[in-house]
Each structure stands twice: as C-alpha cells, then as structure tokens.
Give the backbone structure.
Amino acid sequence: MKQVHTFQAADIFQNSMILQRDRELQIWGQGPEGVEVVAEIQGKTGRTEVKESRWFLTIPPLTASMDETLSLRCGEDIIVLENICVGEVWLAGGQSNMEFFIRYDENRDKVLKDGCDPFIRFFDQPEISYAGQELDADYSKYGLWRTADRESLEYFSAAGYYFAARLREELNVPVGIVGCNWGGTQACNWMDPKYLEGNEGRIWLDEYKSSVEGLDEEKWIAGFKADPGNYRNDLFADKRSERLSFGMSDSEMEEFMAAPDYAEPVPNPGPLDPKRPGGLFDTMLLPLSPFKVRGFLWYQGESDNSHADIYDTVLSSLIRCWRDVWGEELPFLLVQLAPFRKWLHCDGGDYPLLRDQQERVASTVPRVWMASIMDSGMEKDIHPKRKKPVGERLALLALGKVYGREILCESPAFREAVLDGEGIVLSFDNARGGLILQGERLSAVDVCLDGRRVEDPEIKISGESVKIGLPELKRDSTVSVDFAWKDYCVVNLYNQAGLPARPFRCSLPD
C-alpha cells in the first residue's frame, strides 16, 4: 500500500457538521504510518495508531449540544474542527425524489423566508460514479456541511429538510441530514452485489453481465470520461434538468420532447456507469460508513419498474446490506411511491405493483416503516413539487417508532373485509378515533360484484370501518375491492393524524 504522509480525516468530518448523540462515535482518516492519533471533544477522548496509512478510532457517547470543537492530533499535526453540533443524524438515500432540492419545492419562497435554522444542517455526498472522478472535474459545490440559511437552503433535499425541521421542533436538538442519492438509479446500484447473488435480484446482475459482454472497455471508458453529462458537479447549471425539475405544462412538455436534442435515455452499461450493480454503493455509500446515524430514510423505486415483481426481494436485500455495513439494525423509513401517470418516456403502469412490494417489505422486515403519500402525487410529473408531506410523514414515523412517542404515526392500513348481507365492510388498522373522509364521496375505489363493476356504490364511513352498500348482493356472490390500486389517483380517506389510507386489494370469498 502507498505510504501516506499527510494527516487527514475522512471528507465528512468538517466544520459545522452534526454528530449523533448518545452513541459511541467512529472517526477515521489517513496519516503517516505508526503515529498515534488522538481525538477530543466534549472532554471525551479516543486514540489509535495509524496502520497501513489508515486510522480509525472511537469516542464515547456525547450529549446533545450546539457549539463544540473537535481536535484531532497526529504527532505534530493538529486538525481543529469548529461549530460542531451534537444531535440527531439521519442518512437520506434514493433517487431524484429524495434528491429533489428545496430550490424546486412549491413552498420554496416560504422556506427561504422563514425556514432558516443554524441547527439544521445537510451534507450532500458528491455524485461520484467511479473512484477518482472527483479529481477529473470541480466538485467543490458538494461534499459540504451546509447550514439551513438563505444561501444554502436551496441545496437541501426538500424531503430531508422537512423531516429535519419537524424533528428539530419536536426534539429541540440539532438535526443533520446526510444526503446520498442520485436521480434515475435502481436499488441494485446502492448495494453490494453479493446480496443479490442468492435470490431473485440476481436478474439485475445477469442483465448487466450480458449487456457488457464483448464491450471494448478502454474505448467505453474514454467515451464516458469525455462526456460532460457524466459529471454531476453543478446541478443547477444544467438547463434541461432545471426545466424538468421546476415543472412544465403539457404544451411545454410536448415542445421539450420534440426538440432535436431530446432523446429517451438508453441503457449505458459499463464499468464506470452509475447504474451498474453496486456502483454507487462503492463510490458514494461505503465511504460514509460507519459515520454514526440514527437511521435511514429511503425514497426510491421508480427506476425498478422493469422488475417490479421482485422489488420486495431487492429492497429487503438492500436493507440487510446497509445494516450489515453499519453494524446495527438501524431503523429504515421508506416512502411509498406517489400517484403518477405519464412524464416524458416514463409511465406509472407498474406503480401499483411497486407500492404493493413496498408494503410487503414494511410489513415483513423488522424495524422498517412506510410513509404513504397517496394524496400528494402529480398525474403528469414524476417529481411531485409538494415535498412537505413526505418529510413530515417520515418525521411522524420517526417520532412514533424510533423516539417512542405515543402518537398515531402510520397510515390507515386495510385489515379485513366482511360481508354483512347488505354489502361489504372494510376494517382498518391505524384508525384510532375514526376515519375521516375529505369530500363528499370516497375516491380511488373500484368495486366489482360477481365480476361486474359497480357504478357509484353507496359508501359510508363508520368509526374505523368503511361500509360499501351492495343491494344486489346474493348469498353466493363474489365481491372485490381495489382501493388506490391505480397508477394515478388522489386518496381522500384519512385517519385522525391526517395520514391517507394505503392502497389495497381484497376479495370475498378469498
């Protein structure tokens, strides 16, 4: 191994960072061989010796605070990091809807005016798809700890910001978000490929292997590095991306797609491509571990539509991978995909299945919980501009499931269906205090009696149940109900916490 003579800490350890409270912390970096490294903060000390040019030390748990200094000493070299907070830290991963910046959020002006808080901070991991890419272009706008002020808020993940703001209000401690996301990526890009080798997810590995068979690797790499579009180092400077993120009308979208320079994305597999299995796990996620966090936030799934039927396997494997990397069974909070129909080359035809797969993961994997946003989608935009419900519902889950608050924090979930002679009665969990209908009629529901769709059925809300009247019901009738089982719809059934009911399907007899 090459000898390192410069003492330095890993990139995430900077001025103005937030460290996780009440947990033993890990700090690491590089340095000259054999020299002792000593760290001190809050009167707590950790020490180690540089081995093979790397050092790794632990510091006893810290209490929440708002202005600390971390000193790192290696022989005669000293690094002093200032304006450090200790509080709650969460890692926010996924694709474009997690990355989606406050810059594009519908409440941007209000957030920039009223949302500044020096104790909410955000670290955005640079979007690097191969080792050393940060040396091939100027990535200085990313990889920074930013404070929630007018100058920096536009760079915050909108979902991450709203999550942090709610926790900050409720817990009264500093809150940090570590953003690790990349638009248009698949779950397999964010995990060690070995976690897919023994299950259905192997199809992603097999497809990649097939697509690169016979590839002229040297030529491919030269072409990849020569393409400016492969360097995501100044995202606000990309005019095409800006138009898409801010949103367009139908006519603007048609004009955009008719332009000579518009082309649908095509698979671009290769050894440096961000969409290769495990690529972003190696270059973005792994360098962050084991920076101590309270848990994970995840908003992804749109790009897994080509294998929607195995998404539960892939996502479960990703969760196992991340927990293994951090060495803890950390909580994992995910966002169910928003309602959506058509945008550019994308369509939401597989979204009902993907949502069902997400529901399976949340229902079967321990310490995984799901936020539903079935009232917050956009029919013709894959990027809903209203991210406040996303962040705040994730925060509600965290408060109830992770921080132990006695609150209603999950969406109404279908429990059972019973025929009562006059119709079908649907009962729900997470409906304490009764369900609420916003509007005159229940939306997004399809009822079939003996194989025929029932038009405009009579529906009544009663406590924790929904009763659907079926005057033509017979003793041997079959009844099926699909609720929000569509690419796009707007759910208007809520619980007392203002959370929309999750999609479901049921039939009687089973």
